[in-house]
Write the structure tokens for this entry.
Amino acid sequence: MARAATTTDAFNAVAEPRRRDILNYLALQEQSVGNIVARLGLEQPSVSKHLRVLRDVGLVQARRDGRRILYRVNAEAIRPLHEWTKTFERFWQHQLNRVKALAESKIKPLNKL
């Protein structure tokens, strides 16, 4: 089965690390392209291209503020991504509990040294 285009599928859109970086930065507050460029050290055309993909799949929204366009995360569109990854939370929690138990079993109490 062919993979969906990044412009039509949120999962494929966030497969690109720079798009995830942009989403992480926008999660804090809405930002202009210039702020994203400055913060992430990417070229402006690249940021604009990634924002277009993210906007096309609905993960970010844009609004005009005078001459600037400000971008923000669309939390509702990210919900399916969150719900899908949450299915693996039990697995990771189980793994972390195993690591914790192993680490604690190797630590000797201070009063027995």
Remarks:
- The chain has a mean pLDDT of 87.
- The first strand starts at residue 31 and ends at 32.
